[in-house]
Amino acid sequence: MPRSSSVADFFLFEPQAPVAIPIARGGQFAVRRIYCVGRNYAEHIREMGNDERDPPFFFSKPADAVVTGGAPMPYPPQTGDLHHEIELVVAIGKDGSDIAVDAALDHVYGYAVGLDMTRRDLQAMAKKAGRPWEMAKAFDHSAPVGQIEPAEFIGHPAQGAITLRVNGDERQRGDLGDQIWNVAETIAELSRFVTLRAGDLIMTGTPAGVSAVTRGDVLEGAIEGVGTVRTTIV
After folding, report:
1. Where are the beta strands (DSSP E) in 62-137?
2. Is the pTM of this model over 0.85?
C-alpha cells in the first residue's frame, strides 16, 4: 500500500499556523501583511520635530507581530524607551493595485483599533544614521490589535475620537478627521507601490501624545464607532 503523506514529506519543519484576528460578528481574519503609515497627523509630526508639509510614507511589520484578545505584550529587548502609538487599522478584503481614490473603500473589509509599538531609542539612532527603522518597528509582539468590525455594519469612519489610556490616565487624544491622508487616499497611494491583497492590514498613523511605557503598564485604546484594544506590558 502507498505510504500516507504528511507535513514532513513536503516541509523541513511544520509551517506556522496563520495569524488571525477575531471578527466582531464571528469568524477570523487571516493576516497577510501589515503596512504602516508614517506621519499622518499634523500634531504628531510637530511633536516629533518633523516637517508637516512632507507627505506620509510607508513601512511594514510582520504578520506575526500581531497580538490579539487582550493578551499581554512582552517588553522587547534592546530598548529602554518603548512608546505607544494608537491607530485606526484598515483590514483589506479585496485585491487591487493602482486603485483609484473613489474606488478605494470598496477594497476595505473592516476596521479595528491597533497599537504601533515603537522602540523609540532605536528609531532615533536609525534616523541619525540614515538607516532603516525595521528593528524599531517590526519586532515581536509590536502590533496589538482589537477585533475587526466589518464595514458593512459600521460604515467607513472618517471622524471620531481616537484615544489611548495608560493605567487609566489619558495619554493620546485626536480625531480621525485630523488625518492628513484619509483612508481612501492612503489605500490609493499605497497601491501604487504594492498590490494590496485580501488579508492585508494598514495602520494609518497616530495622533500626538506618544510616550514611554514600562512593565506592568495597562494600555487601553479606543476609537469612536470602531472598538477598542487592550494589552498589558509584561
Report:
1. 66-67, 82-83, 86-92, 108-115, 118-119
2. yes
